[in-house]
Amino acid sequence: MKKQEYLLQVPTLFGLEGVAADELKYGGFSNVQAQNGYVTFEGDLEDVARANMMLRTGERVLIVLARFEAKTFDDLFEGTKDVPWENLIGSKDRFPVKGWSLNSQLHSVPDCQKIIKKAVVSHLKECYGLSWFEETGSLMQIQFSIMKDQVTLMLDTTGPGLYKRGYKRNETAAPLRETLSAGIADLSRVHSDSLVVDPMCGSGTLLIESAMKALNIAPGLKRRFSFENWKIMPPDMASSVREDLKSRIKKDVTFEGFGFDIDASALQIAAENAKRAGVDHVLHFKEQDIKYLKSDSFSMENHKKAVFLCNPPYGERLMDIQSARELYRTLGVVMKPLKDHAYSLISPDEAFEAYFGRKASRRRKLYNGMLKCQLYMYY
What we know:
- By secondary structure, the protein is an alpha/beta fold.
- The protein has helices at 17-26, 45-54, 73-81, 109-128, 178-187, 205-214, 237-247, 264-277, 321-334, 352-356; strands at 6-11, 30-34, 38-43, 62-69, 97-102, 142-147, 150-156, 194-198, 256-261, 283-287, 305-310, 341-347, 362-368, 371-378.
- Helix 9 (321-334) links the parallel strand 11 and strand 12 (341-347).
- Helix 3 runs parallel beside helix 4.
- The chain is elongated and about 70 Å long.
- The relative contact order is 0.12.
- The model has no long low-confidence stretch (mean pLDDT 95).
């Protein structure tokens, strides 16, 4: 029997659409298309499970159920009611609605939520012959977006965002999101034979995501997802995909990571996070001021390239702008142009290159939350 195929959508942080698309292509998924702020692909329920567990840079996995134009609430109601909701939502399942609207005639999000909920209930009443739904079963989170009067209705398969890997119980001030850190590691070409250094590592996210990538540890192995409670999901599907991904973890890599920070408590948090992530055996942490770091002091015997990743503090985050710029000067001195060394630093400061002392080989626009940044890459 042919498996049911769905159109699937993966929202991403702006700037990471191409990275997420490449992940899906290399993972063997079909008809991958990068859009502005998201990626689409096609797949069945096994692909839903696999994408949730293996994606490093996606924010969640959504099943796209319908797309239509709606300029009135009647349009929205009828378009929503036409969707075969019974194929996914059971008679006892919970189906809350959330979403957003931008540049559309239907601009009131609360009103749109109510109309969509009413339409789904109306459809399911006819299907199940019920006048009331108790909604005590599995969570089937309905999401909608309305952009220029174009409605997209989706079902969230993930639950808490994919950036919640499960290894962080504590973190330092202003950490990078895990998905952004994974994107930086990917853009910086971290591989299984790389040496990675973070001179201001904080809670260790950049190093941990680099190590997980190098060891091919799927980021979703140690967490649960909404789809695992769905009645339409074969009972052994999640465990089967999990075991397959575990079997793909690399054991014989030469990857090493070194994290430095002046805050001993941050290093303790980083070490604990690394242990929970299962990468503590390839990461080393040491209390040290950035000005004492020597980028040419690391042995390259077992490594093809040294990759330095850094998320330095800046004025809008942890210190005043002038102090941050003095720190950029220090980083420029420490991070010398060397063969087989690459440096990637993320900052929202447009004057970063002037204070660092060199023009970047390449710049990439990324967003750290709502803050527009540049990833300055030096080869």
